[in-house]
């Protein structure tokens, strides 16, 4: 793995969240944004898994795309080494990639898709298998952008002209292969000629809102104001928020939604103040195998993310810390789910099941 530094361009322009270059996967290192725009280059499944685990790439759809490329890299390496047992080598890749992060279901969705293909082409020559898996990874990436565009068009109809939109974490182009989910809706509304502004929560402790969402929107010249995570209640009470829109890392069969820690309180506040609370996510984020949100695995990350950032320490050294990375918003608090197959008002088990039929 090595590093490439590029000039600062918007993610909707020359900078891509992930890209295939000269036989390797390059990931935009989101840990150093907005100070630097750097790509890290990976040539193995193990490397991609570490990139996912260490948050070089984050956001459920982007994680899924990266994992698909990780499988392709494993196959290419196995083929070039004239491996006698492609199946065994791929199983190792599926295992290491599948263990990289637990909450985002898009990871397992992409791996399952690559696994089905690997079974279908198992009798072919190793190079043919590798080529097929790489083509599938490209397809997953391209379909993600198209899906986000479709979601954006559906969601844009929900945003009134002049709306003040509150969002949490980063659900933009940086969290996907392009355009974004929640921010994709915002982008599509702007492209449709609507005037709007965005309030972006800091999203502690990793500051995805402050570092990533604000950077994305400023690159696209969409008005954005950074606020503290606890400021939403005051602004809602003053009538300064018209709607909340967020992304998701996993949606259970009954419509319960896991997203970045701090999302659940916003949903409660939105209901208290009569403000719509929208969740934008592709169907690959919906997990019909889990009956409700209580079954969604919640990742707990290291305490170092709580006690400081970079070289700055703001908590006493040695203090104990809890760092759950996600929370679950009950379906009853979700005004609508925005998907590539349309808007699902008040999502529940029956309505979600119908999306897949």
Number of E-state strands: 17
Helix fraction, binned, reads 25-40%
- CATH superfamily assignment of the largest domain? Translation initiation factor eif-2b, domain 2
Query: Which CATH class of the largest domain?
Result: Alpha Beta
| Count of helical stretches | 11
- For the record, the CATH architecture of the largest domain stands as 3-Layer(aba) Sandwich
Q: Give the uncertain stretches in residue-range form.
A: 5-13
Order of helices and strands: EEEEHHHHHEHEHEHEEEHEEHEEEEEH
Average pLDDT works out at 94
Biggest beta sheet summary: 7 strands, mixed
State the CATH topology of the largest domain: Rossmann fold
Shape type: globular
Which range does the strand content fall in? 15-25%
Termini separation comes to 42 Å
Oligomer: single chain
Radius of gyration: 20 Å
Counting helices, strands and paired strands, the structural category is: alpha/beta
Total number of domains: 2
């Amino acid at each position: 793995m090595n590093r490439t530094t590029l000039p600062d361009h918007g993610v909707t322009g020359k900078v891509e969240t992930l890209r295939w270059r000269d036989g390797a996967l390059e990931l935009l290192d989101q840990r150093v944004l907005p100070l630097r725009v750097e790509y890290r280059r990976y040539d193995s499944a193990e490397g991609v898994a570490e990139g996912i685990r260490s948050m070089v790439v984050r956001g459920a759809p982007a994680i899924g795309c990266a994992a698909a490329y990780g499988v392709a890299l494993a196959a290419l390496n196995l083929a070039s080494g004239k491996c006698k047992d492609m199946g065994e080598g791929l199983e190792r890749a599926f295992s290491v990639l599948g263990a990289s992060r637990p909450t985002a279901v898009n990871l397992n969705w992409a791996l399952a898709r690559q696994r089905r293909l690997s079974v279908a082409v198992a009798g072919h020559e190793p190079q043919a298998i590798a080529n097929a898996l790489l083509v599938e990874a490209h397809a997953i990436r391209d379909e993600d952008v198209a899906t986000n565009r479709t979601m954006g068009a559906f969601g844009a109809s929900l945003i009134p002209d002049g709306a003040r939109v509150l969002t949490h974490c980063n659900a933009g182009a940086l969290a996907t292969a392009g355009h974004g989910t929640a921010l994709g809706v915002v982008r599509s509304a702007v492209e449709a000629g609507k005037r709007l502004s965005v309030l972006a929560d800091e999203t502690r402790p990793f500051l995805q809102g402050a570092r990533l969402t604000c950077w994305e929107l400023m690159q696209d010249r969409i008005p954005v104001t950074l606020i503290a995570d606890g400021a939403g209640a005051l602004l809602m009470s003053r009538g300064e928020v018209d709607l909340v829109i967020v992304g998701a890392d996993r949606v259970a069969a009954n419509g319960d939604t896991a997203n970045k820690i701090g999302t659940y309180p916003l949903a409660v506040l939105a209901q208290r103040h009569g403000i719509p609370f929208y969740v934008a996510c592709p169907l690959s984020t919906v997990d019909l195998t889990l009956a409700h949100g209580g079954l969604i695995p919640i990742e707990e990350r290291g305490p170092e993310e709580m006690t400081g950032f970079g070289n700055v320490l703001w908590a006493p050294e040695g203090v104990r810390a809890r760092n759950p990375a996600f929370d679950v918003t009950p379906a009853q608090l979700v005004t609508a789910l925005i998907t590539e197959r349309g808007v699902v008002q008040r999502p529940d088990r029956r309505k979600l099941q119908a999306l897949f039929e």
